[in-house]
Amino acid sequence: MNRLAASPRGRAGRPTKAQMVARHSELLEAALNHFLDKGFEGATIEAIAAEVQMTKRTIYTRYPDKESLFLAAVLRAIEHNVTSAERLRAVVTDDLAQTLANIARLRIDQVMTPNGLRLQRVVNTESYRFPEIFGWYYQLSARPVIDFLAELLGAEVKAGRLAIIEPETAANLFVTMVISAPVRALMTSAVLSSAEIDERIRAGVHLFLYGALPR
Question: Global pTM?
Answer without folding.
Answer: 0.82
